From TrEMBL, chains A, B, C, D, E, F:
Pfam families: Asp_Glu_race
Protein name: Hydantoin racemase
Annotated family: Belongs to the HyuE racemase family.
InterPro entries reported in the protein's UniProt record: Asp/Glu/hydantoin_racemase, Hydantoin_racemase-like, Iso_Racemase_Enz_sf
MF (Gene Ontology): amino-acid racemase activity
Length: 250, 250, 250, 250, 250, 250
């Protein structure tokens, strides 16, 4: 690794700037020396992401963050810091550096720390999306359960009981599922990782931290998304109309 | 079934109005008596959908079509007429009637017409998305191959060789894959279904027609998307900012 | 679609004529305009189908119904109205129109109405067969549970508690499995579909109605079982001995 | 093991007595000392089994062989000697001894003799059924290919080239699939097992021999099909009409 | 089968000679006439195998038993009598006769005796390895649960409650899992097979007995591990240093 | 991250010291600042690992390296630098820091850099083990092919054509499999990663570098293998006999 600085762009796909701060802090806490974390808030979309609808509306703004950065000052890696990994495949098409989602990152790391892991998340309505991602990435055998605390995303920071509810849910998930590790199912839980891990005595994986580690490793190896099959090559130039930003490429 | 008319809304997720006409014609050709086809063009997004990026940018406009229709004159079924089934889960959250994607529709019908089917599509860069959907819906065993003609979506209508290239690709796919049926991998191929089927002597399934049949059946049974698990319940009310349309619900 | 009438043959694979009536009524209730339902009772086999043994003994008679109709007045679609889908692949070999089983039909429709569905059936000894079909058709992910009421098939109509037992079982299945929809696991439950659906407030799918919708759609598209791989081509001419009917083909 | 004789009933599901002889010889060649092979020809059904239709018509007669033997002189094990394993689950319900199909037997043995095996069979139209069984029994990973020689079942004995065609197909299958073993896909190939195995220098598994070994082992352990879940318990007593034999139980 | 004697080598992978006796007795109880059981204790490794670490340390000694026997007096089959099937693939490379593990043997036999089976084993820490083997061999569908009694391997013989604890656990497993058969998860339970089976009224499979039956069948057919793909060919000659035995081949 | 140094122990499971140097260099090239690489050669076992037999004989020595280091100066992470990931689960039981295998590491990283990857390895006899690991870790969908160059491990460094043979094989694998990335299937290829990647214009992943990145990330997060299910807890104390080293724990 050279003495140059590695820059990792961490994108908060919702529009809540406070959550971006929380995410940035979690990322910086684990970033290797000489790695800069650039944290960005999505300029358009929902204030929190708790449904398929929210994910769909968050994707264009999230992509505009990447295309803008690519035009001006490309990062060495992009992290999509929402547990539904919204827009991940699209982002891979437009970025020249690797792109990772935090659910993806957390699942990969958790699967190397024991036989099975459990996910503890916010609302039960998001379980389906998490289950889809588990299957899509290939972790059906390792993921033994997805559990909801029923705390909405934006209440995570304000609810004084978040820490204890989350700890109890994680402890119960370990026991019920016979798991060895816990994956936290929302970027907004990142600041509680150490507290919960200490309380339950088991590995607790926050996808933001996991993703920073993975991107730092990829940057050190000089890797980026492959384009040999054509799927992740730059999209063809065409007309995009009716959207608030110029999404045209090239 | 009563004498009332069933209304099926067929949405073209791209912004090309000519393609909407083609799709509407395919839908009307198979609609049962007393079934009205309402065809709508996406008001915002790409002029054709050939990448994950295009899909992500098409979803908000597509969803705005449904939420607008739900506010004014709800349909008895919604069909998303792009083979990547963009925005499908999100649409299910905001519609009070069933929602189907044309890839989904075509896979289901094809799987009941033989042991295996092959997909013949436009650009090879879209194969990955089609493969994801095959796996997601449970058709990994039945789908034996996905083949590209390398004809871009908007060239399908203008290229004088589309019919013969498509026919050759379908015939070859049947042979190579040992399949019994063909699924056409783009709504823009709908007008060629009969021609290709006649030429190759095997079932050729267009997802637009398949979807209309499925939605008509669901309407006759009085069925809509279930909300018992909460995943497809109406999304929670929240702030959506920076988008060209008011996406707020409720 | 032309003004000609579409004829769908609904076959009751057991020998109980009363059940054929019930099935015919369920089929007619959802048939599109200008679609005729021809309901036929199996002339040889068991009076109800509740075991692998019963299924094996029902198949020849069921096939004789199809071969006889093909010789005289071929239908535009055949529906096998027993939840074990007995003889389905064999029927596809001898029919010139599409053939669907009601388990197959119900699974396909249910999988498009939510993330997961539960099956509620008659005797627990039939669960294994239902599970085999779920796996065979590719719905292992979507089907979250198969539950028995322990009501024998022929008691469904006579037991005054059938409606309430079934409703309770469906409600409990939704809750336990976290499902969004219910599939009824016996053609003899078809007349209770609306009652149960109304009571539990979730989509309840009867395979007879689902199958009629699917076959009507296939007929409108002019589709039939593909024979390109040879598997579903007409069986080779040969000698069949010791059976009560001439099963020879050609 | 006691000095009593173990009796294994080998059933030829088709009506061709010459094939029963061939099967009986293959069974006797590998039967352990003090094991008697009782070979029986199906009294009703097709003269060869080469389609789903043939299988469906073979099942009742095959089951009548077992129920008759159970009434008079139950065997210690039953082997269904047709590669489609017709009527297997039904047979398990009515037999008090274990029942095995020859496809099942061959797949199990082959999977313990190398990483992958290939199946070489008669007509290509039977490949679908073999593939279904592979999936059903859990051998999707081990079975690497199913290949047809296009020799009809009844021509196996009369075609002077059967041996050389089969040998060539097996050798080619090993090479193409990267397999370690061959499964012969028809009971009528049993007499060629040694010849082919010698020629290609790899394990060649005939399901008849494999099944005899498995049943002898089960008999020595005193095992029979379990009925705890109820699925394989004796079917309920009921009326069976229109069939040439009394299929009533109890 | 000729009048020659078949010799099956049953290897106890741990160093406890008393357990070898127990295993040998179970093997002899089911061996066909004219089949000799040669029971051997591992000369190096742990006194019992209850972890991945124990398995890794047991493998070299276990392999030395086979290579030594191959040099002097090759057996007609080798059975690895520890439920983790340690060293199985390696053993296949160095033996000229078939090699089977007892977990593998038990799973295969159990899967032919009902729809689903349950495993009842010693310590819960071994469940992961058993689950891996279930998946590896293809029995994910048939194996419905793996249950621990928490009795350490070497206590099985000395704990006066072993029989009743095991019986209770097996009965409960059948009920909870809806299984038809039980697989005993440790060679040290072999002497309790009949007692437990009698008590619960369901098939109970001991892998030692199951393995002897499978190897006897393979020997009768003259089969051995295939080497066509090269994977199970004799390992290349090379230097092995630092080990207590000469592991060099050839 | 503190200013303390992170120590990662990279173990070469074979006894070839020259290969340890090569591996150490690859590890150091990507290690983050303030991360020390401790490279160790296995003191007992084969000089190269090219069979299941070699893997089994390599495991005890490999484990002795870890138990010795744990007794004296525990590392913050252990990397098993052989593509078969020998002894991985056992190592997790005895290490207090995370343990990763290089096949595992490479698969995880490759799966985030495109839709599919291909493995290019040494001898074809090792393909089976690689395929097992692919399935075990959950990458069956992403891994599209495993290809052998037929260069033995110890010839990689001496064969002047290794670079060009490997490059050609990687390029061909990309094309044949439609992959986006390449995984190198042997630690001995680590020094060729950049050369091959440059030549083929696609991401080439060496598991040694990938593993160092993953372990550095885990160390920054303070994570270690979870022991909640008991599977990866320290093995029970017991007697190990006949081995050249004292393998007793505690």
């Amino acid at each position: 690794m050279t003495v140059e600085t590695t820059r990792i762009c961490v994108i908060n796909p919702n529009t809540a700037a406070a959550m971006t701060e929380l995410i940035a802090a979690a990322a910086r806490a684990v970033a290797p020396p000489r790695t800069e974390i650039v944290a960005v808030t999505n300029p358009m979309g929902p204030e929190s992401i708790e449904s398929h609808y929210d994910e769909a509306l968050a994707a264009p703004g999230l992509l505009s963050v990447i295309t803008e950065m690519e035009r001006t000052d490309p990062a060495d890696g992009y992290l999509i810091a929402c547990f539904g990994d919204p827009g991940l495949d699209a982002a891979r098409e437009v970025a020249t550096a690797p792109v990772i989602g935090i659910a993806e990152a957390a699942f990969h790391v958790a699967s190397m720390l024991g036989r099975g892991f459990s996910v503890v998340t916010t609302l039960s309505r998001t379980i389906g999306r998490a289950a889809d991602l588990v299957g899509h990435y290939g972790f059906s055998r390792q993921c033994r359960g997805i559990h909801a605390t029923e705390i909405p995303v934006l209440d995570l920071e304000t609810n004084p009981l978040t820490g204890s509810i989350l700890t109890d849910a994680c402890r119960e998930a370990l026991r019920t599922d016979g798991s060895d590790a816990i994956v936290l199912g929302c970027a907004g839980m990142a600041d509680l990782t150490a507290e919960v891990g200490h309380a339950i005595g088991a590995p607790v994986i926050d996808g933001v931290a996991a993703g920073v580690g993975l991107l730092a490793g990829m940057a050190a190896m000089g890797l980026r998304t492959g384009t040999a099959s054509g799927e992740f090559a730059t999209p063809r130039t065409k007309l995009y109309t009716g959207l608030p930003t110029n999404f045209g490429l090239g």
